[in-house]
Amino acid sequence: MRLFVRTWFQRFYAAFLNPDLLAKARLEAFPRAFTRQRKLNFPGTVLTILDVGRESSSLKLHRMSDYFKKPGEKMEVTQQAFSKARNQISEYPLRTLFEQQIGDEYHGLMGRLPARSDDGWTYLAVDGTKIALPNLPELRGKYFLIGANASSPTALGSCLYDISNNRLIDAAFSSEYDERSCAISHMKRYEELRPGDKKSMFIFDRGYPSIALIQEFEKRGMTYLMRCRTKFNCEIDALPLGCDATVTIEGSAIRVIKFELGPGQVETLITNDTGHKTEDFKRLYFMRWGVECSYLLLKNRFQLENFTGKTENTLKQDFWATILASTMLMVLEEDVDEQISKEREDKGNKYEYQVNRNIFVGIMRDDLIYALTAKTPKTLTLRMNKIIQRAEKFVCPIKPGRTVPRAENKRKTKFHHNHKSNC
Q1: Is residue 57 a contact partner of residue 317, using CB atoms and an 8 Å limit?
Q2: pTM of the predicted model, to two decimals?
Q3: Nearest to 395 by CA among 333, 323, 328, 348
Q4: pLDDT (tens digit per residue) in 25-67
């Protein structure tokens, strides 16, 4: 295990055991939660929520009991006891652990600073996704509604993804469908992580362009690249294919690049960047695909929408637990992929190889929580090493430029043929 990964998890371990975490996690109605020594303590409750498997709560609690019980002791925790315990705390410990780990990493406290691309820039992708919630009256009154007769409660999940480092560095769980407000909150968070940084570009899909958002970037001195929908602005629509021109809209100078995406498909990008060449922007925009892969990980591999509770509090706990677990996987992937590359560098393979992420999620489901129940940092490191060694055996090729045509059939299936089970 490399120094960075070892430091990352040891700092997480220390933060997780910090008594202040419990003090701030208690809900106001339960000021004395977890003050008594019970079978299911605060660490056990948080780790059960963090368990990336989506089996029944009974199976998770049975595993947790095995990890925490003393030799010769019989220890079983019921679902009712777990439900009571988790309802006494907010999502605070999970959200704070994620934000603190990312903050420490970006402030250089993990033994290194995050990498930048070869051109010295950091490229960031922002995107949102609709999260289907349990269809209950109390949720219908708090979250926005979609579907037939606007009857299905839905939350907006939004993420800021660092393409250069394969890392989710900010997230939001919103009751309102307002992607641009979430984008502004991501910008504020990035300013905290990298104050005064002028060489970072935020990349957006076509749902984001607005004059208000563009002016927000100008006010903060930040750089954007957005895919622009038709009818956003008549002057932009009138520009010819292949152009690289500047238009002024409500006092804002906007650079417009148009190119052919495919036969009969015209792509329009807008930006306030003047340093990159015209031919760079097609490549830069496609780099945002990493955030789509992150949503595939969150919603399909970790089954984000397969919530383990039905209250607003438990939904937020599950959301932040999934964000934190996916971040841990991305951190471990760096080490695993490096080991895979070293083992294959003299084999003359046609493709480069990486860890099979789907199997890796299954390995984490089996071993991650056990590793985090370690009594000492040394034991934690040994257990995390075993996860890495186990994951190195499962690889898949990286095939650059591979595309899959979109099917015309819009039928939705519960189990898609491209999304294999990790259970």
Answers
A1: no
A2: 0.93
A3: 333
A4: 999 899 999 988 877 889 999 999 999 777 788 888 888 878 7
Each residue's pLDDT tens digit, 129-151: 999 999 999 999 999 999 888 99
Angle between helices 42-50 and 92-106 (to 10 degrees): 80
Determine the Cα–Cα distance for residues 30 and 7; give it in Å rounded to an integer.
34
Q: Can you tell me whether residue 70 is helix, strand or coil?
A: coil
**H/E/C letters for each residue in 359-416?**
HHHHHHHHHHHHHHCCCCHHHHHHHHHHHHHHHCCCEEEECCCCCCCCCCCCCCCCCC
Element (H, E) at 153: strand 152-162
Interatomic CA distance for residues 127 and 241, integer angstroms: 26
Specify the amino acid at residue 237: D
Q: How many Cβ atoms sit within 10 Å of the Cβ of residue 43?
A: 18
Cross-strand bridge partners of residue 155: 131
Q: Which residue type, as a one-letter code, is found at position 393?
A: K
59: exposed, middle or buried (Cβ count in 10 Å: 0-12, 13-18, 19+) = exposed
For residue 78, is pLDDT > 60?
Answer: yes
How many C-beta atoms surround the C-beta of residue 6 within 10 A? Answer: 18
Q: Tell me the mean pLDDT in the region 379-385.
A: 96
